[in-house]
Amino acid sequence: MRIAIGADHGGFNLKEKIVKYLKDNNIEFKDFGTFSLESCHYPQFAKQVAKEVVAGNFDKGILVCGSGIGMSITANRIKGIRAALCWDETTTKLSRQHNNSNLLCLGERVIDNDLAIKMVDLWIKTDFEGERHKIRTDMIED
Ligand code: RB5
Predict the structure, then answer these.
(1) 41, 44, 65, 76, best to mutate for ligand 1 pocket (most atoms within 8 Å of CB)
(2) Is the pTM of this model over 0.70?
(3) Tell me, what CATH number does 18's domain have?
């Protein structure tokens, strides 16, 4: 499992906590920034991480901004990306089981950061259920 991760200034602090989680759990990853709280533009990071995932350089991506909304809107413009903006454990699990999400979007300013780490753990460990859900995810790409 190789993960590409990125954030803007609004998601920087949570991104750092997720990076620590990935390191502590020996999960391979590349951090595409941002690397400080200085104001920057979320589409730059969303496009970069999404393109890396679609190119097959990484299995999955994680993007964090203030709300998660800008990241999800941008990432979903990249063909092949199924970016899920999740807000609890249920939506996180379902995004993998039913939607085969390949990119998790989180909003640092709108969810508890400890919950966010639990969500990342769950998202990484939950498999796609396939079958009827595969018919539907294939339809997205048509
Ligand atoms: C930055 O202030 C904020 O707009 C951004 O992090 C994000 O929430 C956009 O969707």
Answers:
(1) 65
(2) yes
(3) 3.40.1400.10
